[in-house]
Design a protein that fits this description.
alpha+beta; 18 helices; 42% helix
């Protein structure tokens, strides 16, 4: 039996999993590390923490599994997207990495759109300028830390810094590079126009590969630290959502997945590039060569449910302790007793502003229709439904772009709720399916490594063999019609409140 390793360099920690060639997990290990916030709205991490976590987790899974290192035929790397890693000519880290959730670059985003033009920027990079993306972070360092920028010899993304430590190669791949806002997304290569206009030297950037391509081989030093064989191939890998898509089998037209984690994502594969000129959703190259994905984001999906748990559901928490179950189980039970529409109560899940379809950092959460007769069960159901409506907003934009999934996979913590899965199926009007594996990005990049190592000829062939459905929830047409009436009202609420949100933010 041959094996591959999937490394997922996340924000809270790095998880490494060893899989056999049929996608069966052999061993896994996670190492956590800190997030630094030196100022309000800033978010940074030390790339050395990622490197140390990778060496420790890979070594540990090899020790746990007992697998012969010579039977490991490939490594795939996934990771948090958009982070800026700056190195000098000797590969020394010049400053902490400014990561995806950092919000300091609002002025730089405006500068980028003024320099390039918003419409032209979307045409080339498939996205408007966003504070989370890497280009604005580079521009911030150029402006505020010119002495550091002057020393910079290499710019890498988080997972690509790990690639460098493993192989000595400066490289990236198309899915993660799409989130830098420096890539010509339709052409799948660095944009000379964007780089020239922003004054960023192309030599700072690594070579761009497709996700299953071999980008380098394990060095002797890295192999010793990982307890692996020197020369083990390392493939391009993928950004976290693109990697999760492969792990969910979303690798051909008509396939999509919804993630309900802290945030929510609706992600659809498309063989033909589709770009929203309004910039409401992201279009990136996906991990399947020659294809793309379209992705809408709800900022506070699972976060909304956690918020109501922590602020309102004290009794449910106590009851869960008595029963020895998770509080969400008790909350689901109460929410299931409320009718569709939560007794005419609607919830807007804008606790952290919103990305899709509004791109508004000032909008905030709200209950609409709250009355003295409503219970905590009604409020919980309204939150669950409100998140579904927000995710439906994402799906509606995809529909406008001629991306029409006919089946929806679901993953993330929220996907464990049978009630929430049923709501989504009814609100979407399409089947919602869970899969057997819950390893997400780590499985996805391990599959890419299998393709790179020649165990499978294509990503689709590998996914068709490895990714197996677990349970499908079918939509109820009557429920879909009932939810649609509440969704129609929900859609209009943001427009009614938009100016009030702005006024409130300016107080």
């Amino acid at each position: 039996m041959k094996y591959t390793i999937g490394i997922d360099v996340g924000t809270s920690g790095t998880k490494t999993v060893l899989f056999d060639s049929l996608g069966k997990k052999q061993a896994s290990h996670t190492v956590e590390y800190p997030l630094y916030q030196p100022k309000n709205g800033w978010a940074e991490q030390d790339p050395a923490d990622w490197k140390n976590a990778v060496f420790e987790t890979v070594r540990t899974v090899m020790e746990k599994s007992g697998v012969d290192k010579n039977d490991v035929v490939g490594i795939g790397i996934s990771g948090q997207m958009h982070g800026l890693v700056m190195l000098d000519e000797n590969d020394n880290i010049l400053r902490p990495s400014i990561i995806w959730c950092d919000q300091r670059t609002g002025e730089e985003c405006r500068d980028i759109e003024n320099i390039i033009g918003r419409a032209r920027l979307i045409e080339i990079t498939a996205n408007p300028a966003l504070t989370g993306f890497t280009a604005s972070k580079i521009m911030w360092v150029k402006k505020h830390e010119p002495e550091i920028y002057a020393k910079c010899a290499h710019i890498l993304l988080p997972k690509d810094y790990i690639r460098l430590t493993l192989t000595g190669e400066y490289a990236t791949e198309v899915s993660d590079a799409s989130g830098m806002q420096l890539l010509d997304v339709p052409a799948r290569k660095w944009s000379d126009e964007v780089l020239e206009k922003l004054g960023i030297d192309k030599k700072l950037l690594g070579r761009v590969y497709e996700s299953p391509e071999i980008t380098g081989y394990l060095t002797k030093e890295a192999a010793e630290k990982c307890a692996l064989s020197e020369g083990t191939p390392v493939v391009g890998g993928a950004g976290d959502n693109a990697a999760a898509a492969v792990g969910e089998g979303i690798v051909s037209d008509g396939r999509a997945f919804t993630t309900i984690g802290t945030s929510g994502v609706v992600f659809a594969h498309t063989d033909n590039i589709e770009i929203d000129p309004a910039g409401r959703v992201h279009t990136f190259c996906c991990a399947v060569p020659g294809a793309w994905h379209v992705m809408g984001v709800t900022q506070a999906a699972g976060l909304s449910l956690r918020w109501i748990r922590d602020t309102v559901c004290t009794e449910e928490i106590h009851e869960a302790e008595k029963e020895g179950v998770d509080p969400y189980v008790v909350m689901d039970r109460e929410a299931a007793e409320a009718p569709i529409g939560a007794n005419r109560l609607l919830y807007l899940p804008y606790l952290m502003g919103e990305r899709t379809p509004h791109l508004d950092p000032d909008c905030r959460g709200a209950f609409i229709g709250l009355s003295a007769m409503h219970t905590r069960g009604d409020m919980t159901r309204a939150v669950l439904e409100g998140v579904c409506y927000s995710l439906k907003d994402c799906l509606s934009v995809l529909d406008e772009m001629n991306v029409h999934p006919d089946d929806m996979k679901i993953c993330g913590g929220g996907g464990k709720s049978k009630l929430w899965r049923k709501m989504l199926a009814d609100v979407y009007g399409i089947p919602v399916t869970t899969i057997e594996s819950d390893e997400g990005p780590a499985l996805g990049v391990a599959i890419l490594a299998m393709v790179g190592a020649g165990l499978y000829s294509t990503v689709k062939e590998a996914c068709d063999t490895i990714v197996r459905a677990k349970e499908t929830v079918l939509p109820d047409e009557k429920n879909t019609v009932r939810y649609a009436k509440f969704y129609d009202i929900y859609k209009g609420l943001y427009t009614h409140l938009k100016n009030d949100y702005k006024a409130l933010a300016e107080l």
